[in-house]
Design a protein that fits this description.
- With 133 residues, the chain is an all-beta fold.
- The chain is built from no helices and nine strands.
- The protein has strands at residues 8-14, 19-20, 26-27, 67-70, 72-75, 106-107, 114-116, 122-128, 130-132.
- The radius of gyration is 14 Å and the shape is globular.
């Protein structure tokens, strides 16, 4: 189980198989293999190099402060203040502006319910804790 405060509950269900073990092994299948495939082949390049090391050192500290760098610098603070206004409309800027379309439809409503479709079904519900299944 993985606990992450995101203002609310956070159910992460990546349509198919999804074993996420942060800080340990990281077996993630977004509809396909995991050089992060969001409906397409996508070797985790949000604008540039991405210091996101799953299954090894993990500079992404959920529930703490941590700088998430998606092409630009911006502190993404989960469980704290959060400059990203989830629960409002916003085009997430990952190196470029784009209304977050990862292979399919994408309803971004953080702070409420959020249905993310990454190539497959993907329900993300930010509500309280962060339960990764």
């Amino acid at each position: 189980m993985f606990s992450l405060r995101f203002g609310n509950k956070f159910h992460l269900i990546l349509g198919n198989k999804f074993h996420l073990i942060l800080g340990n092994k990281f077996h993630q299948i977004f509809g396909n293999k995991f050089p992060l495939i969001f409906g397409n082949k996508f070797p985790l390049i949000f604008g540039n190099k991405f210091p996101l090391i799953f299954g090894n050192k993990f500079p992404l500290i959920f529930g703490n402060k941590f700088p998430l760098i998606f092409g630009n610098k911006f502190p993404l603070i989960f469980g704290n203040k959060f400059p990203l206004i989830f629960g409002n409309k916003f085009p997430l800027v990952f190196g470029n502006k784009f209304p977050l379309i990862f292979g399919n439809k994408f309803s971004l409503i953080f702070g409420n319910k959020l249905i993310l479709i990454f190539g497959n079904k993907f329900s993300l519900i930010f509500e309280n804790k962060f339960t990764l299944i």
